[in-house]
């Protein structure tokens, strides 16, 4: 290869390389984690509201699925730890914790009340439906709605009753025997459990109505 040809080849190579360097390269898309790490206000200015909305939606969805489970898990841990601790102290040191039985009692009672919205949410309550299964599908739907309306009225009655009891405990300053805690807080938690049961029941009924309407529309479209 002559010297002139070699110079021409090098000239073409460098010209292509310089041309390639001048081509604008696409910018790498940055993730939200990089925005947080760098702390650049200019970077998050355009997507902050969207990110906050996504976080809020994810939190609401998580609470919708796991709120009752978390509460029941906390009560179960308290019940297990204090029961084990009290039994161990009585056998080893022959002296237990005087107020542990009251804590376990409150945890057990509140677990029972918070289990109501849990089984309503997941429709896992025990029911005897041997006779209902013999009825037509339309009749079963009507009876199901009737049962849910009766449950809604019952929970509303219980909620009003807990309000009366809570107000009475507040007026007389009723205290628990061992811990000397105001009983109005315990009754208030029971009232919250019934309120949550009503909200869960309304949620289940709304989802069921939406599902039934969608099925009716699909059957109408097929017809």
Brief description of this entry?
This protein is 78% helix and 0% strand. By secondary structure, the chain is mostly helical. The chain has one domain.
Word description of this protein:
The chain has about 220 residues and is an all-alpha fold. It has one domain (about 45-215). Helix content is about 80%, strand content about 0%. It is built from seven helices and no strands. Helix 4 (about 50-90) packs across helix 5. It is elongated, with a radius of gyration of 32 Å. The model is unreliable at about 15-25 and about 25-45 (pLDDT under 50).
The total beta strand count reads 0
Domain module tally: 1
Q: What is the molecular shape?
A: elongated
Which value, in Å, is the CA radius of gyration?
32 Å
Query: Helix amount, in percent?
Result: over 70%
Give the helices and strands as they follow along the chain.
HHHHHHH
Helix count equals: 7
The fraction of residues assigned to DSSP E strands is under 5%
Poorly predicted spans: 13-24, 26-47
In angstroms, what separates the terminal alpha carbons? 82 Å
Mean pLDDT: 80
Structural class: mainly alpha
The main pleated sheet reads as: none
